[in-house]
């Protein structure tokens, strides 16, 4: 019996490659979002710690220059946090796009796989019918020979 060959196998492999590539891009985008969240948390922790130090030093007495440096540093941390939060929003949008892209690539691959499965099933069904017909023909010929003999 001849083996089934799908004419679009190369195309299917290409779709699988594109889906795999989309998965990697999604994973990278997810890692970028997580890294950004960690940076935001670290900056917020640093802000809280610095604010706590400033409160302690303010109670015990602090000179004006040191107080100004604390304020500059805190405002710098605030702007860094805002920048990272904006960056986080952009990264989330990118992540959403990558998820949609992966979903689309998966649908395309599954469509080709379904076509392959249907063609394979049809091929084997036809092969089975053909073999059954050959078997029936052989049986008829045998019976005809037995009758003639």
Short description:
This protein has 149 residues and is mostly helical. It has helices spanning 9-60, 64-148.
Global structural class: mainly alpha
Low-pLDDT segments, ≥5 res:
none
Q: Count the strands?
A: 0
Average pLDDT figure? 94
Largest sheet: none
Identify the overall geometry: rod-shaped
Whole-Å distance between the termini? 33 Å
Q: Given the structure, what is the number of helices?
A: 2
Q: Helical residue percent?
A: over 70%
Beta-strand proportion: under 5%
What gyration radius follows from the Cα positions, in whole Å?
Answer: 35 Å
Q: How do the strands and helices of this protein lay out in sequence?
A:
Elements: H1 9-60, H2 64-148
List keywords for this structure.
149 residues, mainly alpha, 2 helices, 92% helix, 0% strand
Description:
This protein is mainly alpha-helical. It has a domain of 103 residues. It is built from two helices and no strands. Helix 1 runs antiparallel to helix 2. The longest helix is centred in the last third of the chain and has 85 residues. The model has no long low-confidence stretch (mean pLDDT 94).
């Amino acid at each position: 019996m001849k083996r089934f060959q799908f004419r679009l196998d190369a195309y299917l492999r290409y779709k699988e490659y594109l889906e795999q590539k989309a998965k990697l891009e999604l994973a990278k985008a997810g890692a970028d979002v997580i890294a950004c969240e960690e940076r935001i948390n670290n900056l917020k922790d640093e802000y809280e710690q610095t604010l706590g130090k400033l409160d302690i030093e303010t109670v015990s007495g602090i000179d004006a220059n040191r107080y100004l440096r604390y304020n500059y540093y805190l405002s710098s941390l605030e702007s860094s946090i805002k920048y990272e939060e904006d960056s986080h929003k952009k990264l989330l949008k990118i992540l959403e796009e990558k998820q949609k892209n992966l979903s689309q690539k998966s649908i395309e691959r599954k469509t080709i796989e379904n076509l392959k499965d249907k063609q394979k099933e049809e091929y084997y069904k036809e092969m089975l019918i053909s073999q059954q017909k050959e078997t029936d023909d052989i049986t008829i010929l045998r019976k005809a020979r037995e009758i003639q003999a």
